[in-house]
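Run log, item B.
One chain of 229 residues. Sequence copied directly from the ordering sheet:
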Amino acid sequence: MSSRSYFTPSTFRFLRELAENNDREWFKDNQDRYEAQVRQPALDFIEDFAEPLRRISPHFSADPRKVGGSLFRIQRDTRFGRDKTPYKENTGVQFRHVAGKDAHAPGFYLHIQPGGSFAGIGLWRPEAKVADRIRRAIVDDSSAWEEAIHTASFRRVWSLGGESLKRPPRGFDPDHPLLEDLMRKDFIGSARLTQKQLTSRSFIDDYAEMCRSGAPFMEFLCRAVGVEF
């Protein structure tokens, strides 16, 4: 059992204030707060989660580097979107599969945002050929897929979500009993998190247990896309 809180009410207070003052001048004036209340706690969490993650699967990375690791940048890429605010109003952590840089591979995700925190697992918006491999795996081993998503431990924690195609994917039976799953664009599970959960001293252990409950789902996806679990 962990004896420390990584994220605190100050983490959420900073993110709420950032949402109200999303400009470079305010952020510059509050850079030290960001470092102490958001970034460093997240990096500490990532570093300490490496061992629990290894026990779930040795093929995922908990990388505590400030840049290029498991922690997403707070700066937004404003080049292509309509929203030109310079900063994200959340902090995000992705524990990527070691093959993730070279292939579309599943990952574990943690999203911290006042009123909108959640944990995520799976593979978001894979490219067409990767999605096709997952759909083929669902057809070829339907029992393993159904077992992965219908176990009591999975359903107690995770809800499948994401976007779906408007019509059955080409090459698949439109009357297949798992058509709803075959039409998914995203193969992801999510679980809402409260500020109370995230600021608890037990959160790192609770999050590890959540990830363990999703392990069969992650193992199925890894096998489908051809990476180790």
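Observations after the first pass:
- The chain has a mean pLDDT of 94.
- The CA atoms of residues 82 and 135 lie 33 Å apart.
Flagged for discussion on Thursday.
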